[in-house]
Amino acid sequence: MTRSIKKGPYINPKILKKISGKKPEEAGVIKVWDRASQISPDMIGFTFGIHNGKKHIEIKIVEDMVGYRLGEFSPTKTFMRHGGKIQKGLDVKKKESEIAVAKAAKNATTKK
């Protein structure tokens, strides 16, 4: 559910205080823990270090990000891959096809 229009967007006042009176080039990385705060037009050009629960991920704010939340650009989970027998079979087939292509390329160059 979205936030009420009469309330306006949620922007943490501490974040606005950190960027007030500074230029984006001089500010450096601004560390932020509030992932729920929305990105306002005042933040364009600044680089934020958005905490993902483990470390701060550096994100440079651009015009297209206005209206989104800070947490949307700092994923909290790392996708490794799907597991199981099917994935192992696919990995083996892929490796075999790469080897076959490499051998075909090698044979083509040696025959000339």
Rg: 24 Å
CATH architecture term of the largest domain: 2-Layer Sandwich
- Number of separate strands: 3
* Name of the top-level CATH class of the largest domain: Alpha Beta
**Percent strand:** 5-15%
Give the low-pLDDT segments: none
Strand order of the largest sheet: 1-2-3
CATH topology of the largest domain: 30s Ribosomal Protein S19, Chain A
Describe the sheet with the most strands: 3 strands, mixed
Q: Estimate the mean pLDDT confidence.
A: 90
Distance between the termini: 67 Å
Integer tally of domains? 2
SSE pattern, N- to C-terminal? HHEEEH
Can you characterise this structure?
It is a single chain. This protein has 112 residues and is of the alpha+beta class. It folds into 2 domains: 13-73, 30s Ribosomal Protein S19, Chain A (2-Layer Sandwich); 81-112. It has 3 helices and 3 strands; from the N terminus they run H-H-E-E-E-H. The chain has helices spanning 13-19, 24-27, 85-111, and strands spanning 29-32, 47-51, 56-60. Strands 1-2-3 form a 3-stranded mixed beta sheet, covered by helices on one side. The protein starts with 12 loop residues before the first helix and ends with a helix. The model has no long low-confidence stretch (mean pLDDT 90).
